[in-house]
């Protein structure tokens, strides 16, 4: 899940509607904290019973409605779709990086899960199948992404909150997980070297030694959130 949101953090910064994320001031003030609050909602949706998941989705919808009311404008439908499309894409990409290639049927299942979220939120213009989503995803990346002053500022905040070493790891992870179409928009270009380290991590996971490695590179400030995520994954 952290890998999913590292990719989403990169793409959020490029989205033409990123100004909405700056409206309350909470995102630039604490981008990592906002990441974990988003993970909390995602965990509630993915790992809860149906009624609890629906309540979490409804709460997300209410929060967005409150922001729209305060700003006196409506978040564009395409921006809502973009976020949903990110979650579909990075769920698949993250699993394939850390586990194995997914079958077409498994990818369709991921799509259906998030389609149900979008339908619950009454989002307009959603694709009706995994294949139509693939087409719309490419169109959205072409039309709705651009580097801006918000992009540069948000990545500066990532570095400020994470420190140089963790920020370097974040960029490596983002470079691995984001689509090729997004890489040229990013405010950095790198030589990837994280792949071999992930191979070591996979071995450590088999030996049940991966948490020490993971906890050593993640900010201690958010360790409680990470532990709660572990509990959800193993319940």
Please give a quick description of this structure.
Helices cover 76% and strands 0% of the residues. The chain has 14 helices and no strands.
Task: Characterise this structure.
It is a single chain. With 235 residues, the chain is an all-alpha fold. It has one domain. It has 14 helices and no strands. Helix 1 packs antiparallel against helix 9 (149-162), helix 4 (31-46) runs antiparallel to helix 5 (50-71) and helix 6 (77-98) packs antiparallel against helix 7 (104-120). The protein is globular, with a radius of gyration of 17 Å. The mean pLDDT is 84.
Task: Draw up the topology in text.
Elements: H1 2-14, H2 19-22, H3 26-29, H4 31-46, H5 50-71, H6 77-98, H7 104-120, H8 130-144, H9 149-162, H10 164-177, H11 180-183, H12 194-206, H13 210-217, H14 223-234
Helix pairs in contact: 1-6, 1-9, 1-10, 4-5, 6-7, 6-8, 9-10, 12-13
* Total helical segments: 14
Write down the secondary-structure element order. Answer: HHHHHHHHHHHHHH
Q: Could you tell me the number of beta strands?
A: 0
The coarse silhouette is globular
- Rounded mean pLDDT is 84
Strand content: under 5%
Which stretches of 5+ consecutive residues score pLDDT under 50? none
């Amino acid at each position: 899940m952290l890998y999913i949101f590292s990719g989403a953090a990169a793409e959020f910064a490029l989205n033409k509607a990123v100004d909405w994320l700056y409206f309350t001031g909470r995102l630039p003030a604490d981008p990592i904290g906002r990441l974990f609050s988003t993970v909390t909602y995602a965990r509630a949706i993915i790992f809860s019973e149906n009624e609890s998941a629906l309540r979490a989705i409804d709460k997300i919808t209410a929060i967005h409605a409150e922001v729209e009311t305060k700003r006196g404008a409506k978040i564009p439908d395409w921006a809502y779709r973009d976020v949903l499309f990110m979650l579909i894409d990075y769920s698949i990409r993250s699993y394939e990086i850390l586990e194995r290639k997914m079958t077409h049927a498994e990818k369709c299942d991921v799509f259906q899960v998030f389609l149900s979220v979008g339908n619950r939120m009454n989002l307009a213009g959603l694709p009706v199948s995994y294949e139509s989503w693939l087409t719309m995803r490419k169109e959205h990346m072409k039309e709705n992404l651009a580097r801006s002053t918000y992009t540069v500022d948000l990545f500066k905040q990532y570095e400020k909150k994470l420190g140089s070493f963790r920020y370097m790891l974040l960029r490596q992870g983002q470079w691995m997980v984001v689509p090729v179409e997004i890489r040229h928009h990013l405010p950095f270009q790198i030589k990837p070297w994280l792949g071999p380290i992930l191979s070591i991590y996979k071995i450590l996971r088999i030996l049940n030694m991966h948490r020490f490695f993971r906890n050593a590179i993640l900010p201690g400030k958010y360790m409680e959130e990470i532990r709660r995520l572990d509990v959800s994954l193993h319940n």
